[in-house]
Amino acid sequence: MGNDGYGDKPPGDDRQPNLNDSYLFAANRPVIDDRVVAVYDKSSYAQDTAVAGPDVAGTPDAGETLELLLRSDFDARARLEAAWKLGKIQSTAAVQSLVRALREGDECAQVCAATALVSVGVPVIAPLIDALQDPNVEVRRKVIWVLWRVGARQAVEPLITCLRDEDRKVRGYAAWALGRLGDTRAIQPLIAALDDDHEKVRWDAAIALEKFGEQAIPALMEALADERLQVRVGAANALGWLMDARAIRSLAAALKDESAPVRQRAAFALGWIRDTQAVDALVTALGDESDEVRMQAAAALGWIRDNRAIEPLARLIEDENEWTRYAAIEALTDMRAVAPLKHALDSTHSRVQEAAQHALQQLLKLEMV
Prior knowledge:
Layout: H1 34-37, H2 44-52, H3 63-70, H4 76-89, H5 92-104, H6 107-120, H7 125-131, H8 137-150, H9 156-162, H10 168-181, H11 187-193, H12 199-210, H13 217-223, H14 229-242, H15 248-254, H16 260-273, H17 279-285, H18 291-304, H19 310-316, H20 322-334, H21 338-343, H22 350-368
Helix pairs in contact: 2-4, 3-4, 3-5, 4-5, 4-6, 5-6, 6-8, 7-8, 8-10, 9-10, 10-12, 11-12, 12-14, 13-14, 14-16, 15-16, 16-18, 17-18, 18-20, 19-20, 20-22
């Protein structure tokens, strides 16, 4: 969460708190409770007492003491215990304590508070929606995780607003959360997010749209004609992951898009759907001017494994692009097309000969199994 890398998971999943930096909570008034004093006492006896903490049964007034424990520089185990007990109290004051720790505490306190807030459920939704406006980006990221775990559909509109947050991780987490919540109000905003400036956010939005299943298919097919390039690319990806044959006609039309990246992703999607209705369109795409499109179309035909593609793929073995030649050989191997692979042994390209020889050896092993 403090990591600048973008591949990290939404906050609170499996991270270890960082206790290297000291953080002491300053009480606003004199503290006389021995359990609070124990927070600042580093002796073994005092630590054991503080970890045990106040019993939450029938003692909502323990909230202040627990908040002090949670926001101290104390042992992570004690802080997690304090957060858990605050969550068990579930009074308004206890919830406020957890939200304050989430907004004002250090990294460890924020993670502990976020985990506890999930257990509280519905009562935390309103203050957390307010916290989505917090200037601290780490707070906004953790709040999104809690809202998803709670299943807060009341947060859908605020999360949609987060798709325009200045922080790319907040935008990505919001997309991820909206996909998990599954509210159809998010479909069009997520399609718009396919045009985000950051590649990872665009990817997260496409994955989120896939989570909606068949509900998203009409909007995604329409998005294949969007004027924005990245929207068309993302829509093709999502339709491929959905693997629904209803999208074949729209994806086949996208194989004629003016942009090669769109044509490539459309070929990928058609292959991923694995329906023979796409064979003719993909065979035509084997003659595309783009190396990447020809290569992806060959791979897609290998996934579908329709014999109508064998001859066109055999011709592609002599393609001008080396990687396209390899894709054709791999597709023919998937289809167990021995004859064209044997013919490839006489290719003018030595590497094609080697690849064909290897493919035939692999097929021989499969026959012997």
